[in-house]
Each structure stands twice: as C-alpha cells, then as structure tokens.
Amino acid sequence: MTTLAADREIDALMALHPKGFELSLDRITRLLERLGNPQDRLPPVIHIAGTNGKGSCAAFSRALLEAGGHLVHVHTSPHLVNWAERYRLAAEGGGRLVDDETFAEAIARVARANEGQKITVFEILTAVTFILFSEHPAAAAIIEVGLGGRFDATNVVARPAVSVIMPVSMDHEAYLGDRVELIAAEKAGIMKRGCPVVIGAQESETALQVLIETAERLDCPTFVYGQDFLAFEENGRMVYQDEDGLMDLPPPRLPGRHQFANAAAAIAAVKAAGFEISHRATEKAMAKVAWPGRMQKLAQGKLAELAPKGSDIWLDGGHNPGAGVVIAEALAEQEEKNPRPLFLISGMINTKDQSGYFHAFKGLVRHVYTVPVSLSDAGVPNDELAVRATEAGLTAEPVSSVASALMLLRDTWDGPAPRILIGGSLYLAGAVLADNGTPPT
C-alpha cells in the first residue's frame, strides 16, 4: 500500500503534467533513452491488450506462472484504491505490491530524468514499470496495456514473449475510432513481427478478421480462441483443449462463464511464451486466481454491514456495454442456481455508454439506484444516470451514495434476501473497496 512518500511524488506530477492520454510513443521513447532503456532489460513479457478481460487474463497468467514455481512481475492499470496496486513485484510465495520507499524512489528518478518536459503522468508511471521490472529479478513480466495498443506507452517492448488480444468491443471511441474494426486495428498494434500472438474469444467477426490479418502480415505464430484452443464447461468442470490435448480442470475461482474463455487465453498465452505448466499447476491456478473489483464478492466490511441481512453483494468495475453483457450473464447464471431478487447500484463516468451498459440488465434487475462517482471529474450526475437507466428499460432512482442505497434497500425491501451488484465504474469500485475497509493487497 502506498503511503505519503509515493503519494507526494505522484501529486507533484499531477500538478505539473496534464491529465489524460496523448497517443504517441515519442515522449516515452525519449524518456526511456535517458533512463538507459530499461524496457530492453525485462524478463520475457506477456503483453495484454483488449477492451474487456485484460485484467482477468493478467490475473490468470500470474496464477499459472506462480503455480508453476515462477517469479512474476505484474503491471495493471488503473488501480482501485492505491497507486501501488499497479506494480506487483515478483517474490517467493507470490508477488507483493511495491513498497512505498522503492516506489517513491523510482518515481523521483523518472521525474528527474524527464527534466520537466511535456509528458503525461501515465507515461511517467509506465517508465516506472520498466525501471522496477528491470531491476528486480523475475522469470516473466505481465504487462497490461493502458489504452488502445499501438500508441500506448507500454508498447515499447521490441520482442514480447507473446502478445495477447482479449475481446475487442466499443470503448474509448474518441481515442480509438468509432467502429470496432478501427478499435481492433489499434489493439493489434502491440503485435511484433515474428512474435507469438494469442487472440482471445471475440464477439465481433470483423474484429477477429482484423486481428488475424494483422498477425498474418507480421508473420506471427498465431493461436486463436475457437480454432487453436478453447474452453468449455462439462459436468461443473472446465475443460481446456488445444493441440496438446485436453485438461480437465476445476472451474475458475473468478465467477462467470466468460472467465472460462479468459482462463483459456491465459493458458494459451503462458504456453506460447515458452513456459511449461503442468496439469497440477493449472488446477492450482484455477483455484487460487484473484482479481479485485471484478465480480468480487463483498461478504464482510463496513458497507456490506449496511445491506439487508443475508444479502449476496457483488462488486464489478466493468463500465461498457460489452462488460455489461458478461456481468449480466454471470448474474443470470447465479440466478439459475440460486434465485434471488437482483438490485443494481451504479455510478458511471461520462465517457462511457451508460444506456448501453444498462441495457444488458433489462429483464434481470428489479431496480437501479444511481450514485455519484466522486473520485472522477467525469462522473455522471446521479439524476442524469437514472434517466439513462430508464431509457434502457429499467426503473431507477438517484441516491447520494452507495451507503445510502444499501440502507434504503435495507429499510424498504421486505422480500427475500436480495442479490446486489455495485458496478459501472472502476472509480466506483475503488471507492467501495476503500469505504468497505477491504482494499486490494
């Protein structure tokens, strides 16, 4: 967990440099040259892009490698509660979030090298990733793309062990394009000539075609979900299949049928990167994998105690229509096994398709409570968000906070113990984990 030293360094950067993204590799390349090009001294890199499922793929990849006895670095973004969540450094017995002293020193070193030149904070923090990962030993580094792929600051690794493209759908249209094939082309930008590529399950045939054509043009050994590998449910188990045969595995610890495909992509990626993972290690990974803020069950904590007694509370930071679909499917699956009335507490930001997200829950959610997203300047006002939910065919009302929504539900609902989803934004998910007293560790 970060403390004052790293927070002070980041606050200083925020005051000096603009927020947001500037899609170019010129600034990060210049900065890394001043730092001695640490991105060229990394262990084998698993580089992950996509609209949805990147974090889950990173979590599965980490679990697989650690179950196989390997030391692994992991970079993900954004964080939920603490900046240090973005940097998990390899350690015996499982990685550890970077400690405050090491983190603060790396930030300060990168900021000095930049000498106040124009740059974004994300680019500086990406350079911190390369500093940390190059200076601490590990067998592999898992690096998640921040935005897009082609011009993302992480896309300076010349020869990744494998590039992974998870499901591509509409998101960040202002930066990446307003058609799925344009977004797919941006994500495909992390592919490097001759380096292995794993393409996860794609809903769009157009996106899939763009990804395959790009990989073929670059002469990349390519492994495509549904063609070269796949996973399916059989008798309550997960079966993974590729050219090496079948693995009969326990279902992933992360809930939702979509996690079968995410797990399969990670297995294919780890193998394509050159690691041999035994059946036993894969079983262990499926049972131990964890990914905070993504269909995370809140069984205890300060907020959980405010809900109706016996409530089944879930937290998910998914924030676009594609994420809404897979979350709704996961909840529908739970409804089949254990029926409960479902309520949604949602906060979103104005760069996301709010009505598209809500539409996925039509016919499934009994009522929506909309809340402000206080950690983002782009938060949609709760009354306006209630209108978007209503436009999607749901009943909705604005309330002042997640705590207020939980207490209102507790005081007004007289039916069976409900199932509650809190979702719509990673900012909201982070605030909930902080307020609940259960931040990621």
Automatic annotation (TrEMBL):
Q: What EC number(s) does the entry state?
A: 6.3.2.17
Domain of life according to the entry: Bacteria
Q: Record's GO cellular component, any one?
A: cytoplasm
UniProt KW Secreted keyword: no
Point out the signal peptide segment. none
Q: Which GO terms describe its molecular function?
A: ATP binding; dihydrofolate synthase activity; metal ion binding; tetrahydrofolylpolyglutamate synthase activity
Keywords linked to the UniProt accession: ATP-binding, Ligase, Magnesium, Metal-binding, Nucleotide-binding
Q: Which residues form the Mur ligase central domain?
A: 48-270
Q: Name one GO biological process term.
A: tetrahydrofolate biosynthetic process
Name the reaction it catalyses.
Answer: (6S)-5,6,7,8-tetrahydrofolyl-(gamma-L-Glu)(n) + L-glutamate + ATP = (6S)-5,6,7,8-tetrahydrofolyl-(gamma-L-Glu)(n+1) + ADP + phosphate + H(+)
Name the needed cofactors. Answer: Mg(2+)
InterPro entries per record: Folylpolyglutamate_synth (IPR001645), Folylpolyglutamate_synth_CS (IPR018109), Mur-like_cat_sf (IPR036565), Mur_ligase_C_dom_sf (IPR036615), Mur_ligase_cen (IPR013221)
Q: Which family does it belong to?
A: Belongs to the folylpolyglutamate synthase family.
Question: NCBIfam families this protein is in?
Answer: folC (TIGR01499)
Q: What is this protein called?
A: tetrahydrofolate synthase
* Species annotation: Mesorhizobium neociceri
Organismal lineage: Bacteria, Pseudomonadati, Pseudomonadota, Alphaproteobacteria, Hyphomicrobiales
